Amino acid sequence: MSIRKDFPILARQSRGKSLVYLDNGATTQKPQVVIDAIDQYYQRHNSNVHRAAHELAEEATQMMESGRSLCQAFINAESRKEIIFTRGTTEAINLVANILTQRIKPGQDILITELEHHSNIVPWQMLAERTGANIKAVAITDEGELDLDDAAAKLTKNTALFAFTHVSNGLGTINPAKVLIKMAQDVGALTLVDGAQAILHLPVDVQNLGCDFYVFSGHKLYAPTGIGVLYGREALLEALPPWQGGGEMIEHVTLTSSTYQSAPYKFEAGTPNIAGAIGLGAAITYLQQQPIAELVAAEDALVSRALSGLQQIDGFRLIGEPAKRSAVISFLLEGSHPNDVGTLLDQQGIAVRSGHHCNMPLMTRLEIPGTVRASFSLYNNDEDVDRLIAGVSKATTFL
Amino acid sequence: MAVSMDLEELKETFSFFDDWEDKYRFIIDLGKDLTPLADAEKTEANLIRGCQSQVWLTHQLSDGKLHFQLDSDAHIVRGLSAVVLIASNDQSPEQITALDLDGLFDELDLLAHLSVTRGNGLRSMIEKIKHIAAHS
Ligand SMILES: Cc1ncc(COP(=O)(O)O)c(C=O)c1O
Questions:
Q1: ipTM surpasses 0.85
Q2: Is the pTM here over 0.90, yes or no?
Q3: Candidates A27, A116, A117, A124: which one to mutate for ligand 1, based on the most atoms within 8 Å of Cβ?
């Protein structure tokens, strides 16, 4: 059972060879149904939402709002009011960091981890600067797992918020999200989970997890760029102030003051990315029609096969050895820079990422300049793995 | 620089490559022939900003000519540095200012390495050399 044929781009060539796309951690390719949904929207339904009383506006609004309901079901949120559309993970985290400004007291701790993407670091640093809070980070072990003892030590009554990634984009570590959320709740801290890398590979149930906020990007889930989701608990969202002001988010405006809509609209100022929301809905519908458990199991098998093949190669050094690994393999080749390997693989039609992966503090902790990262998706196959192993093997002959 | 090849020889060598493998092996070998910078010169001040790999550049002006030394922690960038040096080393600031390095990289079919997205710093390296030439 392969879903490869649904993704037209996978049939193209790169550098004169058939494309091996292993940069899914950066972004995933789009199935035809998603491309068609966006196309259809612009060809037949384009209109602004929630405003005019005409048929097109009604259709566009209904299509976008059905995207919201699909997101709600996909992560099992209790209410569709808890689904706020953003540009992506980064904007979702910035939104939360901004609306929490008044809640954070000087001297309180904002806890992150050494595994975080810059998107889950910098907005908190900015919040700390605004509020006089401190940034603390949970240490990792040499294997690249969170040190739970350190987490327990750093989660205190003084912790205002614990923001951590569900899956590490740099190493593939799957964090024990539910355990971490429970630990944070026990000290009364709010929780935000960065689901950017988890959303495609793990079943996500926000009610079961119990987090206050969960964020992800559509483009890592076969949907277009420029659309993402901030899930927030309804009661919390209602109690928090808006971030950006403008159209759509208001109830009544005078020249000197305004009253706001309730969530989610309170947090969606301006004309939203309508086509993006529709594309995201189409991607979720597409995924729901696939035998996901089977595909994820096949993906896990591919990753294991790639790992054992790569580990046979002289000079191959695996970076990160978590007990629970998602679809990411980070590595170095002895005596070379990750960018050398990235270029040599690119020349063979194999797309991977090389560099720090927006994980500079993690790379500093591991004392490496960066890694080469092969990241898989549900459409990768045995041939991709064989080409990767052969490609890395060939790269070693250059270095 | 210990690379003993002039620009014409370099262009001629490149014209014989008909696959990427020979070309990249050659680039990496060029980099290996480059005299490494002493650790003492791999300073923050000599580091070129905007590179994912680390690239260091030093220069001296003597007898009206600019002498550069380049080094990098990445093989391919080192090799590409050697190409830049073959084209620009030991020339007067005026000559260096007049050099069309983009044209050269295009001719060698290496222009992709100059794209901003590569972040490998070749572009910053060339800008730095041009800047030094313009201010010497
Ligand atoms: C773990 C993680 N967090 C955040 C982001 C940022 O996502 P985006 O650039 O879509 O906002 C990424 C994507 O690179 C990621 O992998």
A1: yes
A2: yes
A3: A117
